Every structure is written in C-alpha cells, then in structure tokens.
Amino acid sequence: MERPRILEVERLAVELPKAADRVHAVEDVSLHVDSGEIVCVVGESGSGKSVTAYSVMGLLPPGQLTPVAGSIRLEGEELLGAKPRRLRELRGDRMAMVFQEPMTALNPVVRCGDQIDEVLRLHTRLDRKERHARILDILAQVHLPDPKRIAAAFPHQLSGGQRQRIMIAMALVLEPALLICDEPTTALDVTTQAQILRLVRELQEAHGTGVLFITHDFGVVAEIAHRVVVMEKGRIVESGTTEAILTRPQEPYTRMLIDAVPTLEPRPPLERGGTKVLSTERLEKTYQTGGFFRRGTAVHAVKGVDLRVDAGEIVGIVGESGSGKSTVARCIARLIEPTGGIVRLKDADLAQLKGRALRRHRRRVQIIFQDPYRSLNPRRTIGASLIEGPINYGETAEAAMAKARELLGFVGVDPNAIDRYPHQFSGGQRQRICIARALILEPELLIADEAVSALDVSVQAQVLRLLETIRERLGLAVLFITHDLRVAAQVCDRILVMRSGEVVETGPTAEVFAAPKHPYTKELFDAAPGRSWQFAKLAS
Amino acid sequence: MLGFLLRRIAATIPVLLMVAVFVFLMLRLTPGDPAAIIAGDNATPQQIVEIRERLGLEEPLHVQFAIWGGNLLRGDLGQSYFFRQPVTSLIAQRIEPTFSLAAVTIVITVLVAVPLGTLAAYRHGSWLDKFVMGFSVAGFSVPVFVVGYILIYVFAVELRWLPVQGFVSIREGFWPFMERMIMPATALAVIYIALIARMTRASVLEVLGEDYVRTARAKGQGEFKVLVNHALRNAAVPIVTVIGVGIALLIGGVVVTESVFNIPGLGRLTVNAVLARDYPTIQGVILLFSFLYVLINLLIDIAYLFLDPRIRY
Amino acid sequence: MSAAARPGLLRAVLAHGSVQVGGFILLVIALLGIFAPWISPLDPAFLDPTIRNRLPGFESTVLQPDGTLLTVTHWLGTDQLGRDLFTRVLYGARVSLIVGLTVAVIAVALGLVIGLIAGYVRWLDGAFMRVMDGLMAIPPILLALALVALWGAGLTTVIIAVAIPEVPRVVRLVRAVVLSVREEPYVEAAISLGTPTPLILTRHVLPNTVAPLIVQGTYVCASAILVEAILSFLGVGIPTDIPTWGNIMAEGRLLFRVFPHNILFPGVLLALTVLAVNMMGDGMRDTLDPKLARRV
After folding, report:
1. What share of chain C is helix, strand, coil (3-state, %, to 5)?
2. In A, which residues are within 8 Å of B214 by CB distance?
3. ipTM rounded to 2 decimals
4. pLDDT (average), residues B1-18
5. In chain B, how many domains are there?
6. Distance of CA A103 to the CA centre of its chain
7. Is the CB of residue A509 less than 8 Å from the CB of residue A200?
8. Whole-Å CA distances, A3 to A7, A32, A33
9. Nearest-5° angle of CA C60, CA C63, CA C66?
10. What is the DSSP string of A331-355?
C-alpha cells in the first residue's frame, strides 16, 4: 500500500558564509519521508545533518546559511521561497521540531502549560477551556504524571527527560504531518533515552506522523529507524532500509562508521593478575550546603566506595549523570579532598595529604578529562604543556623535550608539531596530546574521566585503541570513567556500576554483562540503544 | 520565600557596616585633629573641646566607633557647625528636589533606553543598532554639565522655551514642576540612557541566541511576540540589575546637575559643604546615599523573585 | 576558548576601526598637550586686563621679555581675566591625560593584586569582597568629594580620590576571571602535574586577566578624566591656578549666557578625549574579550 508522501527534499544545496572551509553546508541532498515512517539522518559532526533539518523548518540563521538550490516540499507545498508568514503558519501546525537540549529549549520564565498553550493560541481558535483540555490530554499522552501539576510547573522544576516530554507534547499537540527530531536524546542519560525513544515511536505510530530523526548514534538508528540516510561532509553517502544499511553497507564510509561502534560483547577476561596499584576503602565525599537562615543540607556525592585496580588492568566505572563516578575519579586524583576513607596508592594513603607532601605523590596519578578543547592551555605551545610536569619534578628542559617528542610519536601525533598551539590540532589529536602529557610523568595510575565521550565515533575508536596499546606496552593501571556501556564493554577488564554515589554491582566485565545481578544494572543494559544489533562484527 | 527575604536583608548588614567603617576611618586617618576638622574653619576653641568630649576623641578607636555608631543608629548625624544646624534637618530640607530629579530621570531613562536597546538588538547590525551603539559611547563621554549648558543655551537662552534654572515643587502643579525639571532630568538621563540602552541591547542580543527563542520560532510565533514575550522577559533580570547599579552613577550626576541648574537639593548641599570643608554634612550625605543605594539594590534583588521563577530560597 | 590566545591579536586590535579613530584623536590631543609651549607663544597664566572676554579670532599684541612686540591671534578668544583660552585649553590637556593614565595604572595594579588574592585564597575571599561591596556602595563622586574635602585639593589628592572608588570594579573583574579559569581542565591538569600554586597563578591564570584588564583600564581612564573635570568644575578639584578643562569651565560659568565659548571649547575637547578613550576600549573589548569586560 502506498503511503502518502509527507516530505520531499530534492537536490538541496545550502551555502556557507564566504570564510568557511567549504562552499556548501549541504549539497545535492535528496530524501523523503512518508506518513508513519521514521527516517534517520546519521552522520558525524559537520556532516550537514542538522542543516538539512533546519532548512526544512525554515529556521536557518538568516544571512549565514542560505538555501541556494533544490526544493523542499511539505505535503506537496514548496517551502523554499515561501513567504515568512506562510512558513509561520506551517511551523507548529503541519511540521514541528524537537531539539537536542531539553534543558535550554524551554523558556525558563514561562509555565510549561502556557508554552504549549502558545502553539494552540497561534494556530487554533479554541477557547481557554478547550485549550486547557487539549494541554492536559497531550501531557497525559506523553506519560507525564499529574498533568495538572506539570502544566503549572516552570521548566527548572522538571528533569531533563520530563522537559523533553514537554517538548514532544508541544510538537505533537496539533498532530503535525512531520516531526523533526534533532538529536533529541543525546543530552539525556541512557535509561531516559530509552524511554524517550519508546515514546517517539509510540506517538508516531498512534498519529501516523512522518519523522525525520537526526542522530550521530548508530545504536539509536538501530532502535528506531525504518530507513537510514548516511551523510558525510554535506553530501548523502548512502541510504536504504535500516536492515540493509546496518547489515550490508555498500559504502566504505558507512562501513567504517558502523565498525567504529563498540560492540556490547565484553572483552575476554584478563589472564595474568598484576600487582595491586590502587585501592580505595570506604571512600566518601560529602558536600555541605547552607549557612545562616538556611537549613544546612548534606549532599552525599560518594558513599563508601571500595575499589581496586591492578597493574595492567583497565577498571571501568559506569554510571549515569549524578552517579558520583567523576567525583570518585577526582578524589583519587586528589583534585578534591575526600571527606572520608582511604585512597591507597601502593604503600601511601593519599586521601588526607596536603601541600608539599601531596605534590610528591602527584606524578604517580595522572588524569585525562572529557573536553579536549579545554584541557590544554590555549596560550602555550603543546611542547610547553608537555614538559611542564617533568620540569616540576626537576628534569632539564632538554631531557623533557626529548621525552615529549618521543611520546608524541608514541600517541600518534607528529613530533615536529611540538611548537604549535592547541588550536592547530583537532579534538582527537588534542586528546592524544593530553594522554602524552599524562604519560610523560610515568604515572602508576592513569585516570580517564569520560575521555572519549566528546569525540566522534571514528575518532573515539582510535583513542580507545591507543589506551589499549598503553595498557599492554606500559603495564599501567587504568581507571576508566564512562557513561557508555559499549565503550566499557570494549576496553574494561572489570567494571563497577554506580548509582547515587554507591557501587551497586562489580565484577569482571564479561560476567557482569552476561548476567547482571542488580536490577539497576539490568535496566541500564536494557536501555542501551541498538543492543539487538551485533555492531563491529561486520569487518570479520 | 521568607527565608530568602531575611537572608537578603541580613546580607546588607555587612555592606552597611563597611560603609560606616569607611566613613568613620576616613576622618580619623586624615592627619590633624578630627575635632578641628568637624568644627570647621571658623570655630571657637571652646567648640572644639566640646566636640572632642562629645565624640570621645580621647578614647581608643573602637570606643570612638561605638559612640559614633550609636549616634548614627539613633538617627543623629551630628551638627553642622558651618550651617549651624543638625545635619538631619539640613538633609530633610533638601531631599525633595533631589528625589524629584532622580525619579523623573529614571522614568525618562527607562522609557527611552529599554525600547531603544531592544530594537537595536533585534535589528542587529542595522543603522539603528549603529546609532544606538554610537549614542551610548558618546553618552558615556560627554560630561553631564556640558550637556546641561548646551541645553540651557539652546532651549533657555536662544529659544527661550524653558526657564533657565531653579526648582518648583510638584505640589505647585505638574507643569511648573516639569518646566524646570525637564532640562536637568534630560541632561542627567543621557549617561544613564547610554548605560541601560547598551545593557538592554547586550542582554536581548544574548537571549535572542537562546534555544527557547528558536523553539518559539519553531512553534510559528511572530517576531514581535518572540521579542517581547520570550526575549525581553528573560533579559529583564540583567536590565533591572544595571538600573540598580547605575543608581551610583545617577547620584554622582545629581551633584553636578543641581549645581548647573541651581536646584536646591542634596547635591548642591554637598558641594557647598565640600567648599566649606563642613565634614559632618558631607558624612551625612554620604551615609544617606550609600544607604539608599544598598536599599534600592535590595529591592531589586527582591524583584528578581517575580521576574525569574528559578530564583528561590 | 579564550580569544586572547589567537596569534596576530595585536594586529586585529590595531585593525579595528574604533581603535584607529580613538587612537588617532588621543594621539593628536596628547601631542597638543606635550608640545603646548611650542604651539602657543603665550604663558597659560598670562593675562591682559584690556582684552577680557574677546570672541574667538581676536588679535592682540603682546610685549615680550626681550622688548619686542608680538602679534597673537586668540583662536578661541579670551576669558574674563583676559587670558588666551587656546593656550589654557592646550595646557589643560596635560592634566586630564596625566590624571586618566595614573588613575588607570593605580586602580588596575591594586585591583589585580587584591583580585588575584581574593580569587585564589578562598578563606580571604569573603572578607575581601565584603570590603569591596562596602566601597562600591558609596557613590564614586561623593567618595572623591569627601576625600578631597578632608585632604585638601591638589593633583595627588585628586588622583588618589578618583582611583579608590575604581578599585572594587577591577577587583571584581579579576576575581571573576580567576574563579572561571581555575575551573578549567587545563588548570586542573597543571595541578595534577605537580605545578606549585604560585606558578599556576602566573603561568595559567594571570595571562587570562591581561585582556580584560587592558579593556577595563581604558574605561577607568575615561571615567577618571570625567570625574577630575567634574571635581574641578565644582571648584573642589585641582587648584584654580592650574589650567585644567574643569577649572576653565568653572571660571566660564558666570558669563556663560553671553560668552558660551569658555565652556563650549574645553567641554567639546573633554568630551572628545573621553570619547576617544572609550572608543579604544570598545574596540579592544570587541577583539580581545567579547564576554567578560562588561561595563559596570
């Protein structure tokens, strides 16, 4: 049965401003969405997937990005060159959009119900009562508890997942023919992501909406898409049904992307046991708030965490935001002071050391952060950043420089680039430089705090391979903090699952993945997008 | 809510205390006999002895501060030996013209600056935006008395539309009041408009880049309502903050403007007191204005509660 | 991240239109002030009671010390004592520029030291900031007026009296920069590399304050020039025997309605100078530091 065509994009080209590195943001893009169908546009950053979505909505920043060729038809009506007034009539009524950041996409000073009401007032002639009924109805449809209370709430009183439900309610309240979702779950925790994906699917089926879904995550694609469009550098590389793209990709780029997705299959357990490098006992971190006239509250960020990392071992801490996993890392790196417990590094307890005594031990623990763009001082050459540590511990500049060059080569950055500044490197290269800076002090423990989370999937795979090499060649103990189960499965020998400051489950990765014991671990695993697909098996 | 109010009010106490300490120390750290400074240039030796005893100037510094602070809390700002009057009654006589001038200036400023800044932000990069930006740089650069004299020259001397100077209370009628108030208030408003138009433009410009503005457009909302309902409502907090901080600028301007337009207010009193080196009066005016500044900014903090639902407790 | 890290930044600053215009105006005014004795043959205090209140363009003859007669044109006319306004305005530029520059240097230096300490030594922060809050609650002109009244008028007093109220604003700026920079991962990385605190401050934190401080310094300079003129205009600033723009205007007040040029010319020059400094500040802010150095 032929379904009605909702959206038809033909040979779309959008021009970039003059100073950009290429002429077109997107070029020769053709795709279509039929009624009741979810089409995923997938690509890495800079692929032009979001530009395509904004072109359809007519929300490209004026003067910066201009559609110069092609056509976009919504239910047969041409949108390129349509009058602004007509576009405003269509937006919110026939086509609607859900954005990436639920935390900032809602107006913070307007009640949620009123923000949905705005759509109704703009596009319908319903009276107050009817509108109110519609609002409560749609809030119930997106499974928000107590719609009356939610309608009266301000956005900041709701969680990220709830806010994204409000956005979806706002988008769907007038039953548009087309829903555009721009990475709607990227900013959310994995369990919330699973719920939102389920919700989009459910409502889309119920209303027969056509959905254009933008994502960078093949797990999400596997979870939700009927058809897939793969984009790279502003062009469409390949498109087809989800089944076809995921199992029989024709283009090398698609194949590379899919290969780079870490498998949920855990690595085989480690044979040899190393010596114990790090252990914590009853590690605690409590933040005290309050003061005069305010009831003091204690926030227990970390509650009695015991962990152990041996030489040559990668131990992962997995958890969602607010689980306390990063706080554990920062306590061990002694960027913050634990409020209780022991941080034992071989023979020494670092937990309560201060000043000079602490500085003596600092070189033994090194940490790599999430954001490669802020981890290097932009005013200093990477050489100066690299030798800062050795010089602090009394090495000569020449010796440190020689070492720095050697390590740059080891992490895969051209040693001749040592006099360049951070902004001359890509995100992946900067993360390699940060790793080199950590290694130059020959630490006993390396902490990676979400070190690959900000990277595109293909770069992420390379950095993970580098960590792997480091562990094998240098026999380091590595503590690996991540929210991503796939990444944990790929690199960690053992994992700890944390929630609300506590370790709920721990064990060898293979065992935990094969038979999770704690209900939260199970929930976390069930939520992992695309878990039914065996990624990274294509290559073999 | 109540907790917030109490805490916010309590937070003003250290600030007011610091102001008091500064004003107290300023005199004590000046070389010379504080009693002689307070008494002024043509005081009798007997008056100086009297002051020395009343303020306990022979006592250690903290006792002096206690005596001085105690008087202050009782509303006793001391005696002006130059004007031969208590400072409080001097201030009371001259408070009305100053408040009238400040109030008219704030009204003119808000009416002009907020729409101007909003439009400039909306038409970012247009001639209107450039004009507003240019005006705000110029407004910061031209001293208030130069603007005042130019206004007097054009509207009072050449065109003879308005009386040159002076003050008439609003109780004598609105027009006679405004007739004399419009020029000084306009002169004073120039720098204030420059400040607030600039801030409004910056805040609205920032808010226009926010995700929720994009959301409003995605709903199909028209540009004017996007600007007013979404952008301006969210820009209100920084704008109101600057209106409060700018009060300090306004108070400084009042001193000069009153001198130019011969308005018998606190500004003129201050200048006369400085010329006569009448320290008790200067001290009284400083304490009063600092207290007002803290009070206004306290009220503005409380206004945040209504402007932004995120601010609680 | 920080724009100030881009190489070629100095060139970008110099290429900015308002920096060029402001810099040019300022250069001209500075040269006029520095070379005043060569530009005008007259002494700024020289008075000729026979030519009081003459309009711009009036010519007179002056008996020189060596006995010769010199014909001079009073380009801006003369004041009510018969002094050449043009000469006095030239010399007035000196005072304004000296006050502006000195105040900016003092306020920035003091503010930098206090701000660094407040931002990095956490237990001192509370006390320091309460002192600054108290200082900021006193309207700047009133504080300056009180200090001048107590210490007597004079160049040094005026400079100190104008500089003190500017300090808390600089402190707040520096402290804000320090607080945001110390959260940067590269500072945390330096901590775990074992870099001692003083080195972290000078190596990683201090460079971030330079750009906002230069911008803030120009604003302080502009504001100081204005406040000095206001103090002198009110008759409580620089002693009246020194020609400053404020003093010249104060003397012109009496006969303003008949001879407005006594106020107009120094007033325009004053506004132009402050405008030039502000334009340079705005231009530098646009290129160096678009986010932090907001006015007030």
Report:
1. 70, 5, 25
2. 59, 99, 105
3. 0.87
4. 85
5. 1
6. 15
7. no
8. 12, 12, 10
9. 145
10. HHTTSS--SEEEEEETTEE-TT--H
Let me know if residue B259 belongs to a domain. yes
If you average pLDDT over every residue of chain A, what do you get? 89
Distance (Å, rounded) from C-alpha C227 to C-alpha C107? 14
Cα–Cα dist A506/A390, whole Å:
36
User: pLDDT tens for residues B40-99?
Assistant: 777 788 888 888 877 777 788 888 888 888 888 888 888 887 888 899 999 999 999 999
| Residue at token pair 């005696």 | B79
Instruction: Kindly report, residue by residue over C201-260, the tens digit of the pLDDT.
Output: 889 999 888 888 988 999 999 999 999 999 999 888 888 888 889 888 888 877 777 777
Cα angle B68-B69-B72, degrees, rounded to a multiple of 5: 90
CATH at B284: 1.10.3720.10
Are residues A106 and B212, on separate chains, in Cβ contact within 8 Å?
yes
Distance CA C166, CA B85 (A): 34
Q: In Å, how far is C110's CA from the nearest CA of chain B?
A: 18
Residues 250-269 of B with CB under 8 A from A: none
Instruction: State how far residue C99 is from chain B, nearest Cα, in angstroms.
Output: 16
Within-domain flag for B301:
yes
What mean pLDDT comes out for the span A181-195?
A: 88
Range of the domain at B178: 95-307
CA atoms within 13 A on the CB side of A281: 5
Calculate mean pLDDT across residues B246-258. 89
- Whole-prediction pTM: 0.84
User: Would an 8 Å CB–CB cutoff place C184 in contact with chain A?
Assistant: yes
How do A276-291 and A340-345 pair as beta strands?
A: antiparallel
Q: Which residue in chain A is spatially nearest to B220 when comparing CA positions?
A: A88
- With an 8 Å Cβ cutoff, are B15 and C295 in contact? no
Which H or E run includes A398?
A: helix A397-411
Q: Which residue has the higher pLDDT, A347 or A40?
A: A40
- Domains of chain C in start order, with CATH, are 3-41+84-288 (1.10.3720.10)
Which distant-in-sequence residues (6+ apart) come within 8 Å of B147 by Cβ? B186, B187, B190
What would the mean pLDDT of A152-174 be, rounded to a whole number?
91
Locate tokens 């349509």: which residue? Answer: A82
Which value, to the nearest 10 degrees, does the dihedral of the CA atoms of residues C137, C138, C139, C142 take?
180
B213 CA to chain A: closest CA distance, Å? 8
In a domain, B68, yes or no: no
Q: Which among A52, A61, A9, A73 is positioned nearest to A234, based on CA atoms?
A: A52
Assess if residue B46 is contained within a domain.
Answer: no
